[in-house]
Design goal:
Distance between the termini: 21 Å
Radius of gyration: 19 Å
Strand content: over 45%
Order of helices and strands: EHHEEEEEEEEEEEE
Helix content: 10-25%
Number of strands: 13
Shape: globular
Oligomer: single chain
Length: about 230
């Protein structure tokens, strides 16, 4: 597991997307999770003939496994009327589940691709999930996990793009040593025109083009049992 005290621009930009839009997207992710049903990874135990399941728990992010319930759009919501250009692609939402393992060496493995609320050829396809990182934000001094994924979107969008995922890392339980991942957000990088004052999270890329990370969705996380070797 890698940790740095200075947040990357991705972390700062994603943290800047707060308020009604972020809350609405998280509620949509929660609704998607309820619609798809719960598939929490568990281990079974038997007590006096009765069988019950024990939820998976982790004290470290390295080598932990999680079920991700996501809902995101291909494009961010237009901030102003001038952003809603007629030549922009239609805004479509995609939802579903997948299970990931954040490995000790900083890589991320896809354990399984679960149900989607789009179904079949209308579903978003996770081609690759890149390595994860843990960062402490300078804005709120809280820890966040960051990772990205290359995702192919079906027609009529018909594109492959990198989406960026971030969630807050909390400590829970009696001894405050059980990890949970909260308030997940999904962002994409979009070029912007010359901004006025007060735009936070805008940067200049290597090609000199101004860009900004814009929120397009949210996700929820549940710990699941590690796959059997």
């Amino acid at each position: 597991m890698r940790s740095r005290t200075a947040p990357t621009l991705l972390a700062a930009a994603a943290l800047a997307t707060t308020g009604g839009t972020a809350s609405k997207l998280r509620e949509e992710a929660r609704a998607a999770e309820e619609a798809l049903g719960s598939t929490r990874g568990t281990s079974a135990q038997s007590v006096e003939g009765a069988t019950f399941v024990k939820p998976a728990e982790y004290t470290e992010l390295g080598d932990s496994c999680w079920e991700i319930t996501y809902r995101f759009a291909n494009e961010p919501e237009a901030k102003e009327e001038k952003d809603a250009k007629t030549d922009n692609p239609p805004r479509k939402f995609y939802g579903g589940k997948l299970q990931l393992q954040f490995k000790d060496d900083g890589y991320t493995d896809i354990i399984s691709l679960g149900d989607t609320d789009s179904g079949g050829s209308n579903a978003a396809t996770f081609q690759k999930v890149w390595g994860w990182d843990l960062e402490t934000s300078e804005q709120d001094s809280l820890d966040y996990i960051l990772f990205s994924a290359d995702i192919t979107l079906p027609p009529p969008i018909s594109t492959s793009e990198r989406f960026y995922f971030q969630a807050r890392v909390d400590k829970e339980g009696k001894d405050k040593n059980t990890i949970s991942l909260q308030d997940g957000s999904v962002t994409v990088k979009r070029d912007v025109g010359s901004p006025g004052g007060g735009w936070w999270g805008i940067f200049r890329g290597a090609d000199g083009i101004l860009a900004q990370f814009r929120e397009v969705g949210g996700f929820r996380c549940k710990p699941v049992a590690k796959p059997e070797s």
